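[User] At your convenience, examine this fold.
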Amino acid sequence: MLTGPLLKLLISSGIYSFTPLLEKTIMKTLQKDVYISIKYALRFAVVIVMSIVSSNGLSKLFSNDKFSNAKHLNHLKITAPYLIIAAIVAFSSQYLYLDVLSSMDVSYVAPIGNVLINLFTVLIGVMLLGESLTQKKILGLAFGMVSIFLLT
């Protein structure tokens, strides 16, 4: 039985699976650059609100505790380049994905895209992070490739 993090992942994936359908529908009325701009602006606003409300987020940045403020600002300075790179990667990936999604079926693009994300994530983990490539991971990737073959 799924509990804890795996249950949350299952629920998150189920909710997120509606995203391509919504995006395909939105792309019929909005240009992709307009959609992406609105999407990320809304995400930013939601994150700011959630961080202010949470006890571990931005609310500590604005507290009167000078040590805490300095610590958070220092962490922000260290991670800022990574945040910028992550934003560029996410934006460019989203831009290309929406281009493909607007011209192909959701039931084709989303599953293949997800399998390719899994493949590239494992390869990046192995090559850049020194993670192990186990037989189980290789088998999972092989099944993913078979699923792409069956979908095409």
Observations:
- Helices lie at 4-16, 19-26, 32-53, 58-61, 66-103, 106-129, 135-151.
- The CA atoms of residues 61 and 71 lie 9 Å apart.
- The mean pLDDT is 83.
- The radius of gyration is 19 Å.
